[in-house]
Design brief:
Strand 11, helix 13 and strand 12 form a beta-alpha-beta unit. This protein is an alpha/beta fold. Strands 1-2-3-4-5-7-11-12 form an 8-stranded parallel beta barrel, surrounded by 5 helices.
Amino acid sequence: MNRLPKDFLWGGAASAHQCEGAWNVGGKGISIADVMTAGSRDCPRRITDGIMIGEIYPNHEGNQFYDRFEEDIRLMAEMGLRCFRTSIAWTRIFPRGDEEEPNEEGLRFYDKVFAALKAYGIEPVVTLSHFETPYTLVKEYGGWKNRKLIGFFERYAETVFERYQDQVRYWLTFNEINHCKPDSDLGMWLAGALRVDKDEPKEQVCAQAVHHMFVAGARAAARGKEINPDFKIGCMIGYIPYYPASCSPNDVMAAIKREEEDYFFADVMVKGEYPYYKKAQYERLGIVLETEPEDAFFLKKGTADYIGFSYYMSNVYSDRMEDIKVSAGGILKTMENPYLKATKWGWAVDPLGLRISLNRLYDRYQIPLMIVENGFGAYDKFEEDGMIHDDDRIAYLKAHIEAMKKAVLEDGVEVMGYTPWGPIDLVSASTGELEKRYGFVYADRDDHGNGDWHREKKKSFYWYRKVIESNGEEL
């Protein structure tokens, strides 16, 4: 094989909370994203206790997709997208999260979105929970630390599986579930809807919440296959390869153990059981999970059909990381890699790291992979000719696509598709900025509320269109 498969899914990716806006329209309830304030490269977002007067919440506006979805999908079709990875906002369907009956107005909105996509031949790839847990489930139940959320999630998943069984074939359960780790308060909030009190054992609480999410995702996947056996239901992780800081065996072992923290999530969701190293760690830390007898059955029954993953950067790791300050945009600890350049947010630009990631994941799991996020955040500006010449973005994506092609054509990795992040500019999840732009299409709005939201095609729009037309041959 010297070309990508003809049915390769070229597309783009977004989430409901970062693009839809209309946070309180159509019966929608408050999600955990709706209580996150604006931030910046140097100032982290804050989580408020409900909606507070005087605070700025960028997700309340998103990029206006709720009102502009027809225009935006037309632009995606003009670009040639074969698929669009997006999410359903849980709180549009169950505003509180614990209702017995769904919100019909929310269901009708996605009826229209999926119909518009299908009209243009664009395949929906739908994430059930993309950092959008209902806020009520945090306030009244404690988030995913509470086992009751398994039933709430299963009811939500069953509702949308049944409603859209003829419109959607590809599904993902939880977005970047592996961010729910005790060393990241932001990650625990986004992925696990968790706020841990000072007197609570963070490692124990986080482990229990993750178990509940594993069971919820597996039960949902099993039910989805009963509703439509043709569904392809995958899992999704944020993947970052970790390179040892030196050839010291101590650094090598530290990097291996750090990568295990992410592999653990995929191990459970793909293999259907807890891996040996996590059992040993829990025993060492005194972590004891509260489980039900049927949990093991469903973990085996509801394993993933494919792995979706995000890839933006690689990191360097050492056994001396306690001396390293948090960097990479304030998200995680990393050491500077002298062989790589970085974005303005400190994310290492490493195309070869994508090929490494694809090989590592495929070697470990031997199931299809899908790159459901990859992209270049930058401050874009219009030039004298009225165009945004985002050549840095084109160069970034070109290099990553080349690396992906080598993984497929030379290494034999099975890759289903590639959906770069944010085809139309949207709110950054990590910083809450609109001006940290990823899109092929410019959304006219800045972080100070200026702009009328109109859309403008960037240079990368025309470049990506040729990439898709040529099935990746013309880069």
